[in-house]
Amino acid sequence: MPGFTGKCLCGAVSYTSHEDPIVTINCHCEDCRRSTGAVFGTNVMVPEDRVDISGELSRYTHTADSGNTMTKMFCPSCGSLVAGTSSGRENVLSIRAGSIDDPEKIDPSVNVFLDRKLPTTLVNEELTCWARMPGNAPWKK
Ligand SMILES: [Zn+2]
Ligand SMILES: [Zn+2]
Which ligand is nearest to the Cα of residue 35, counting in written order? Predict the structure, then answer.
């Protein structure tokens, strides 16, 4: 069955995506590092209008190097980063992979921002690898 569920660490925020991921990317950019607290972010892109979220999310908005307005959504109780949006991606919700319940739904196919990768981060070279975020990425329309 398509779709998957997930939740934050404390469970105050949970969600159901009624679609499988459009694409899942490992992003090594500094924004993903700092916001996730991990050495890279794994971002699971789904159609935003096909996700139901239960519970209140806090939001933090910042401007990326690209000039896009990025919104990070996190649980106000436990601080878990759950999802994000970008003004450069219409109707795409970027769910943080660590919040997903079913490990089989976490299947990255792309590495981006490898030019920002930490020297100690191991990379799966079998995935599509980009030094930056390509302007014509299929999920950006
Ligand atoms: Zn929480
Ligand atoms: Zn990133």
Answer: 2
Residue 98, token pair as written in the block: 């660590």
Domain residue ranges in the chain: 4-129
| Residue 66 pLDDT level (bands cut at 50, 70, 90) | confident
- Residue 141: the pLDDT is 44
Q: How far, in Å, is the centroid of ligand 2 from the Cα of 19? A: 22
d(C-alpha 10, C-alpha 6), whole Å:
12
Q: Is the pTM of this model over 0.85?
A: yes
Q: Is the distance from CB of 8 to CB of 99 less than 8 angstroms?
A: yes
- Partners of 17 in the beta sheet? 4, 51
Ligand nearest to the CA of 76: 1
Residues near 21 by beta carbon (within 8 Å), at least 6 away in sequence? 44, 45, 46, 105, 107
**36: which residues sit within 8 A by CB, 6+ positions away?**
81, 96, 98
Classify domain 4-129 by CATH architecture: Beta Complex (2.170)
- Distance (angstroms) between ligand 1 centre and the Cα of 138 equals 32
